Amino acid sequence: MRVPLNWLADYVDLPADTDPHALAAEFASIGLEEEDFFGPEITGPLVVGRVLELVKEEHSNGKTVNWCRVDVGPEHNEDLDDPKDPQPGEERPSRGIICGAHNFAPGDLIVACLPGAVLPGDFAIAARKTYGHKSDGMICSAKELGLGEDHSGIIVLSDLGLTGEPGDDAIALLGLDQVILDVNVTPDRGYQLSMRGIAREYAQMKGQTFTDIGSAEVAPTSAATDDGYPVSVEDNNPINEVAGCDQFTALQVTGLDPQAKTPFWMQRRLQQAGMRPISLTVDVTNYVMLELGQPLHAYDTALLGDEIVVRRASAGEKFTTLDDVERKLDPEDLLITDRGDGASGKGGKIIGLAGVMGGADVEVNDQTTDVVIEAAHFDPISIARTSRRHKLSSEASRRFERGVDPKLGPVAARRCADLLVELGGGTLSPATTQVGQAPEPTILDLKVARVASLVGVDYTVAEVTSLLEGIGATVSTKDDETVSVTVPSWRTDITDDVDLIEEVARTGGYDRIPSVQPAARAGNGLTVGQKTRRRVSNLLAADGFTEVLSYPFTNDKRDDQLRLEADDVRRKHVRLANPMSEDLPLMRTNLLSTLVDLVVRNLGRGAKDVALFEAGLVSTSAGLPEGPGPRHLPGYHPSDDELEAIYASVPAQPYHYAGIISGNAEMPGVWGKGRKAEAADVIDTVRRIAAVNGLEVTVEADQIAPWHPGRAAKFVLADGQVLGHAGELHPKVCENLGLPARTVAFEIDLNALLAQDDLRAWDGALSTYPVSRQDVALIVDAELPTQTLAATLREGAGEELELLETFDLYTGDQLPEGKKSLAFRLTFRAPDRTLKADEASAMREAATKLAAERHGAEVRS
């Protein structure tokens, strides 16, 4: 919320010499944090000037310029005895200035920027020779002074309703010396999105008496009459059983002058608040919204139907908003429409998305003389959902979704009407519409001792009463320990006694709350999951991987690039209703889909050898019910069956690890040329991840995207769950993603790993007897995975097998085609005796016999 300090001074006692930075620090102490400062940007002489002479000169470039003599006051005019650019017959002191604009004439008061001044954008002004003259300054447009976007013509003070004398300080005249403080308003404090709300906070902070300019007891309102403009509220689809519009006020102003212009002081305040002046009627509605916090809308009566109707949208309805975008409406969208009787030929159209944005059909224009002013109160949830659904945030929606004072409508409508009458020459009609009533105020009991117990500051009853009255509450003593608090209508965020305690702490000053170091609670340390994640991350980091974090958003195109099959479960994404980017509307189902972007980025910035890993959640819509999940009112505690339905509607989010290596797995150096990464590197990485967590996995060849069909492995845990996959990425995938050929990657499901029993715990006694080792070489089919054969040998060898190692692979000419030789070392140890050679040999033979039965293995002599 941008707060022009001169505007704030209209409502509170703000000293003229207030330091804005000190004020920002004081606001921060009550929760209004500083976002930015907008201070004076112009330095040097900027003065009022009167055009004495204007000579049009055509030049060879086809451009016509004005050679002007400008009276800029005695202090700044040239001395007649030594003029910088003498003119024949010169009678009065002045300055010669070249100007290319043509919207002014001799006698006009303009704004002159003289040499030595600096304009916004660090634009320094100096005298310079141009078009055959020495131009001694510049005649300024609104854009050059930061007063707007218009640079087609220069500022003529009479057009702004301003006057002055040559030499007057134009910086002060145009309000260019004022400071604007931009403060951050938290979502639960919508009342602070107004000068009324900020002024209240300042008055309480400084201990001043605040006169509420938005109170019906202070500000004038119009009483409801039977002949007001017809309004009907027909909300047949309330959200959470709460009406979308509980109050609607409409006033009528007739006889407006269509040519009446917004006075400069109002235009300037709108600009300072970050809004663009448009026309008198629109500017007045915006001004009152900024002043009081109540969004307003003005309709051209001549274009409006016979009745205003507030209703929900029908399925399939469409509406073009003021930004010229056609929007497909949702049945939850609350609309402002009109209805005719058929005779007038008017009505029967949508005229606005309630509380968000209007349409062009009944927009005021330069022919409008009669208007209907709308001041309604809408349900915050309904407005917030509509705003997000259509990605349409407006000044009105920002206020409604944070909560607008339900009693403010009649006051704001009357304030708007009075300004239009004053500035536009209109007449306020006594016919007033008032549909609905503001809700009854909330009354809460507060135990004063509870304030001190929660905040840590010993507040007295008088102090608590004073602080709560400062926010606009009415406080009465109920007994020695309890006060009864009537919550002000604009504080819709206060619903319980803890909210009142928060207000006491905030308005009493956060700096009063002592800083106490809490004692750490005794606990059991890290959870099993946390320990496992640290263990895996440490292993990967020790292997040379760098941990990164990518955004979890993706799209269907990435699935195509990864060559996922049409029925692949990884294509079942959760689609975001309000994505950060329209190009990335889906939640990822696997980490590789987003991790590859970081690899490509590093390679694009000159890295040649990249090894990255990421740990994070993935999401899937597989198994979710159709349509939205169950919804319940705030504060409702669902039953066990309802909780089960809620959990069933939440997407599964397993925790994954993924890694990619591109380039060298072993760097070149004095020890050798290095080695490129290959599938075996990431396969071994996954095996060691399982091993470091005390698990054994079965490695099987697999064909699954995005891996190469002949260089990919699947890892299966003891209970049959798939831990993940590793191997070389498919060449087409590398080409699609811009990765180097032979890039390797892995991805595992940590949840599947955590579901296993940790086998690292030793529940027996260590054997002190020596080992017996037996070697065997087996000839098997070349396609048989080593891991499969090793598992068979381990099973056949029996319990005394302590270690099984593969130490040789041979595929030479001495073997039949399609065969390979694998050599294993079997280490046996008995817990209670020294094994004899015959016993170890028998165990080895039992292992090879089982391998021969299952895989046709032959012992190689």
From TrEMBL:
Its EC number is 6.1.1.20. SMART domains: B3_4, B5, FDX-ACB. Residues 439-515 form the B5 domain. It catalyses: tRNA(Phe) + L-phenylalanine + ATP = L-phenylalanyl-tRNA(Phe) + AMP + diphosphate + H(+). Residues 74-95 are annotated as: Disordered. Its cofactor is Mg(2+). Binds 2 magnesium ions per tetramer. One of its GO terms (biological process) is phenylalanyl-tRNA aminoacylation. It is found in: Cytoplasm. Tetramer of two alpha and two beta subunits. This is Phenylalanine--tRNA ligase beta subunit.
